[in-house]
Amino acid sequence: MNASPQGRADRGSGTGAETSVRTVACANCGRTNRVPAAAEGSPRCGNCGAPLPWIAEAGDADFGEVADQASLPVLVDLWATWCGPCRMVSPALEQVAKDLAGRIKLVKVDIDRSPALARRFEVQAVPTLLILDHGRQVARQTGAAPANALRQWVDESLSAAHGSADPASRRP
User: Fold this and answer.
1) Crossing angle, helix 147-162 and helix 84-99, to 10 degrees?
2) To 5 degrees, how large is the angle CA 123–CA 81–CA 144?
3) Which among 11, 18, 22, 81 counts the fewest CB atoms within 10 Å?
4) Of 159, 167, 166, 158, which Cα lies nearest the Cα of 74?
5) CA-CA distance, 35 to 37, in Å (whole number)?
6) Residues with catalytic annotation?
7) Nearest Cα to 59, choosing from 111, 12, 103?
8) CA separation for the pair 87, 135 (Å, rounded)
9) Do the beta carbons of residue 80 and residue 87 sit within 8 Å?
10) H or E stretch including 84?
11) Residue 105, exposed/middle/buried by CB under 10 A (0-12, 13-18, 19+)?
């Protein structure tokens, strides 16, 4: 069973990241897995152990837990529902998150619902994309781009921040 990009469980009565869970199909074995918005380490398939794409949503209340405290570098998508280019770039960002499973976390932030984050990151246009490393901004890009250009930007940003982003040099 494949999960749609919006394959997210209801938040129920909770409001924190601890109740936000997305269902993800493993690209390796096809098993579905529940991936929380915030957790230690990085998500792996419970069946085969393959890295899973980590895609989460965050807002003013839970951004610190979901993004700033993440153990992986975080690709932040600051977007708005009324923004056409934001809707066009979203599938490309999700593809980058799938391609770099186990190496990055994609966190989506609706700036209309999270004005404090829009101010924190001085958003002047959307989409605005950031790479954060333990809450510290290491790269920024504004505007939509195709998946291959976004992948190249993320790889270059990670290389500059952490040394080589080559998959062969991945930390275990």
Assistant:
1) 60
2) 60
3) 81
4) 158
5) 7
6) 83, 86
7) 111
8) 25
9) no
10) helix 84-99
11) buried
Kindly give the confidence (pLDDT) of every residue in the chain, 172 residues in length, as a single tens digit, with 9 standing for 90 and above.
333 333 433 333 334 444 589 999 999 999 999 999 999 999 999 999 999 999 999 999 999 999 999 999 999 999 999 999 999 999 999 999 999 999 999 999 999 999 999 999 999 999 999 999 999 999 999 999 999 999 999 999 999 887 544 444 443 3
Residue whose entry in the numeric block shows the structure tokens 């593809």: 95
Show the tokens assigned to 94. Answer: 């999700």
The structure tokens listed for 157 are 């940003």
Cβ of 81: how many Cβ atoms within 10 Å? 10
Cβ neighbour number for residue 124 with a 10 Å cutoff: 8
pTM: 0.84
